[in-house]
Amino acid sequence: MTKPYAVEVNDLTLAYHEKPVLWDIDLVVPEGVLMAIVGPNGAGKTTLIKSILGLLSPAAGRVSIYGKPYEEQRHLVSYVPQRGSVDWDFPTNVLDVVMMGRYGRLGWFRRKKSHDHDLAMDALRKVGMEKYADRQISQLSGGQQQRTFLARALVQDAQVYFMDEPFQGVDATTERAIVTLLQQLRSAGKTVIAVHHDLQTVPEYFDWVMLLNVRRIASGPVAETFTEENLRSAYGGRVAFLSHAANGHVETTIVSD
Amino acid sequence: MSAAAEIQLIAIAVAIACALPGVFLVLRQMAMMSDAISHTVLLGIVIAFLLIGSLDSPLLILGAASMGVFTVALVELLNRTQLVKQDAAIGLVFPALFSLAVILISRYARGVHLDVDAVLLGELAFAPFDRVTVLGIDVARGLATMGVILAVNIILITLFYKELKLATFDVGLAAALGFSPALIHYGLMAVVSVTVVGAFDAVGSILVVALVVTPAATAYLLTDKLKRMLVLAMTIGALSAISGYWLARVLDANIAGSIATMTGVIFGLVFLFAPDRGMLSLALRRLRQKWEFAQTALVIHLSNHEGKPSWEHERRVEHLSEHVHWEHDFAENVVQRAQQNGLISRRGNELSLTDAGRLRAQEALVA
Fold this sequence. Notes:
The complex is a heterodimer of chains A (257) and B (367).
Chain A: E1 7-16, E2 19-29, E3 34-38, H1 45-52, E4 60-65, H2 70-73, E5 77-80, H3 94-99, H4 103-106, H5 114-126, H6 142-154, E6 160-164, H7 172-187, E7 191-195, H8 202-205, E8 208-213, E9 215-221, H9 222-225, H10 228-235, E10 239-246, E11 249-256
Parallel strand pairs in A: 3-7, 3-8, 5-6, 6-7
Antiparallel strand pairs in A: 1-2, 1-4, 8-9, 10-11
Helix pairs in contact in A: 5-6
Chain B: H1 3-27, H2 31-52, H3 58-80, H4 86-108, H5 116-121, E1 131-134, E2 137-140, H6 141-159, H7 161-169, H8 171-176, H9 181-222, H10 226-251, H11 255-273, H12 279-305, H13 311-314, H14 317-322, H15 328-340, E3 344-347, E4 350-353, H16 355-366
Antiparallel strand pairs in B: 1-2, 3-4
Helix pairs in contact in B: 1-6, 1-9, 1-10, 2-3, 2-4, 2-9, 3-4, 3-9, 6-9, 9-10, 9-11, 10-11, 12-15, 12-16
């Protein structure tokens, strides 16, 4: 028997008020890739992630994680929502937020133990935030908020990581740190799927890509899939390719709205 | 037990029982939902009374509370149509159900304990006259009821603390991890409903909102730890209950009204004087920042011109009024402060940077 895909989506359709937001999506993601989901605004990138995680109910279609429905595979999946989706004035500190990543393993009623505390501190160390463990979350910068969310995803110790715009509003240093972390996850055999906005960095950061615009335009290895033709079909007229010669080879700058 | 002690104990139990779920309502930005629930449970009470024929049955509390949960569901149903926003949905649902209750009372339940005054304001002063025997002990019925509700609230919130915290902070993660946010949401709303029904007799439908929302909102200004916020909200609730009772005694006024007033007074004091987030400490901090900022601006200005041909011109105090556009008095004040802090030295009208001043300018420009 062949190993099942990390994520498999069949005929997924989701509509708000009869208006399709995702139209018959088929997608397979093999284990161990670092995949970007790209597409213009309103393409349904966040919606796709949320429907895979069962946070939205699709009108049709089937999703499986390692061959089984999401509900049976929660423990294999970790989710990093958009930073702006929570209230950062909530009365709690960094360590506590990271600890929330352990709640799934704990289940109802059970209390956290010192083991969970150690794992949370480890995760904070990995994202370079151990000094901020006791910091109130209201006092964090955007980059620190994102690192906190990443640490929370790490303590879930999952196989598949879904991240909604992990680079949004972070500085260049944090962006590098996050990329390194994602690549480490991939090296450890994990699968990472991230909504991404900057087309320019797709080939550098990712090895797999999905182009989405309500329907799936293409998905596969970056080298084969991230082509001008596919990008034009995903973005329509809203993308430009600026080619210029530099250091003896042609570089292409991709600009989208 | 004396009547006075019993009344105070009931008031404390009501206040603490309300403050606990109140913390989560405030953090979920759903404070006004308690207003809706506190009104619509009246319809539940009336219907349950007409069905059961008694106001004393524990079934009445559960029946009435289910109307609170129904209210929440109705508001969400309306909201989900996207034709009505959440706050408007609350404003549509609860007056409709409340007015139905008022009509039912005046039509079918006139003459019983359910009169409109009692509904709005409660009758805490009469609570000791209504007695029951629990485990052989003779207590006021209100005390027994609220004691049980308080115990249940403490147990539930302790048991589901982790789940409540997660679902309040990050609904998406709660759902992804398999902690149904809907279940937690309706569970919390059920707790609020039961508490409000229990508190109804004591403080009425309007003032109960003060006990749910105000102690939690006050505690929010005092701490940034959730556990501490819960403890503070309970403490503030209890303090309001006791001080409100004595205020009513002194003024010979309605007890529930006095308790609600005290929650407001305590909130007002905290709002003004809280150590970090109070208005006073905010104002002081802004003032201090203003002077700090002006001194930094001064040393940066001096360091920009130090050693340049413009130096002799730029270092003069008058220059600050002429070109930096500081009022004369303000400029003098900033210069004096900067001198006191060892950032600059002054000879006549000429300013010089000290080493500390140069360092400050450098640090400010790097950051």
